[in-house]
Amino acid sequence: MTSSIDTFRRKDFAMAEKVQQGIALLLIAGKAHARRYLVASGTPAQVIERVLSAEAGARRMHGHHATIDSSLEPKPRES
Prior knowledge:
The protein has helices at 4-7, 13-29, 31-40, 45-53. It is an all-alpha fold. It starts with a helix and ends in a 26-residue tail after the last helix.
């Protein structure tokens, strides 16, 4: 039996963390700052373009490589 972590598509957890930081920077400071960080951190160009061109909310805020913080989960709207 294969564990779910073995089937997870990200194998480079250090790069996944850098990309996650880039996404956070994108949300906080904008595309130009996120691009500079990702380039400086050695993120491959095709990954940078994919991350920066994704629509807001299209990316997961966490994964197996990150700490799950329930305070970051979207809260249901009250009617």
